[in-house]
Design brief:
heterodimer; A: about 120 residues; mainly beta; seven-stranded mixed beta sheet; four-stranded antiparallel beta sheet; 11 strands; B: about 110 residues; six-stranded mixed beta sheet
Chain lengths: ~120, ~110
């Protein structure tokens, strides 16, 4: 069964360093997303991406964040200068369409720990 | 804006017990409603969904009915198994033009004991 894969599963980084979280969405999907979950809190929407551009972003997704689909298969989330409060589980998701009743398929997540 | 509130866990049950997880929402327009499940060590998986009022979503013995009048989407299962131990997330979709953005509840951890 097709699945969304994320790497690495766990990343530890020092405050101020850049990190890149990687995702391989399902191959025929056209819409891509990043969500995050700070420990003990809700899963929060960060950004959606379609047709090689951001279609929507939340207030969390500030200038420190960027997304890219560099090669037609990977979908990356970059955090330019990590802060302690960026420590969270980051989930990538993809969907075939962008409609309100579309199913989003999620990866297993990358746990980012900023020290 | 949109929001989802679900009961806090953990919920601990014995096998074959009845499970209810309450979920209520606030939204403009007519969102779709979802239950996602996260088994230990895995990602979020869609469990069931309902796209309009009075729709009932069902899967793997779980059911939830989209109640517009009470803005609720409670998850139920009549007889749980140990394998149902997981974290359950209620979520709603945006409406046009943000239809593909999900708003999640806080998640409810369920532990089923043999």
């Amino acid at each position: 069964e097709p699945e969304v894969t994320q790497t690495p599963s766990h990343q530890v980084t020092q405050m101020g360093q850049e990190v890149i979280l990687r995702c391989v969405p399902i191959s025929n999907h056209l819409y891509f997303y990043w969500y995050r979950q700070i420990l003990g809190q809700k899963v929060e929407f960060l950004v959606s991406f379609y047709n090689n551009e951001i279609s929507e972003k939340s207030e969390i997704f500030d200038d420190q964040f960027s997304v890219e689909r560099p090669d037609g298969s990977n979908f990356t989330l970059k955090i330019r200068s990590t802060k302690l409060e960026d420590s969270a589980m980051y989930f990538c998701a993809s969907s075939e369409t962008g409609g309100a009743n579309t199913e989003a398929f999620f990866g297993q997540g990358t746990r980012l720990t900023v020290v | 804006g949109n929001s989802v509130t679900q009961m806090e866990g953990p919920v601990t049950l014995s096998e074959e017990a009845f499970l209810t997880i309450n979920c209520t929402y606030t939204a403009t327009g007519y969102p779709s409603l979802f239950w996602y499940v996260q088994y230990p060590g895995e990602g979020l998986q869609l469990l069931l969904k309902a796209t309009k009022a009075d729709d009932k979503g069902s899967n793997k013995g779980f059911e939830a009915t989209y109640r517009k009048e009470t803005t609720s989407f409670h998850l139920e299962k009549g007889s749980v198994q140990v394998s149902d131990s997981a974290v359950y997330f209620c979520a709603l979709s945006g409406t046009y033009p943000a239809g593909n953005k999900l708003t999640f509840g806080g998640g409810t951890r369920v532990l089923v004991k043999p």
